[in-house]
Amino acid sequence: MKLLVTFSRGRGRKPIIAQAVRDTGVLINVERAVIDSSEGEALIEVPDEQCRLVSDTMTTLGAQVRILDHGVSLDESECVDCGVCISICPREVFSFDAEWKLRLDEEKCIVCGKCIDACPHRALSLPL
User: Fold this and answer.
1) Domain check: are 85 and 108 in the same one?
2) What gap in Å lies between CA 94 and CA 84, rounded to an integer?
3) What percent of the chain has pLDDT over 70?
4) Which helix (H) or strand (E) holds 53?
């Protein structure tokens, strides 16, 4: 399961992901992270059965956590199968099938939003 973790550096410079791993014993895969001197956001992946434990632990450590049930979504009524998303995606989420219809593997999605910005028909969206 993927979790979107946001935090503020105003509470200090604690390594919350490392602390969560230590406190829970759950291995966390960081798929994407953007951190600066004042705040940070990380997309992490944890085993489904440990999701609530990790989420609660990170919340206790001062982070805001959102569980992401889905990655990018495709509105097939708007998609013209142009493939722009294929060329921009860093994780090969998109591909063509045998009939040249666009397909997506949302498990690979790291919710970076690059495909959203690139899609000329606005057929892609991220979870709210």
Assistant:
1) yes
2) 10
3) 96
4) helix 51-60
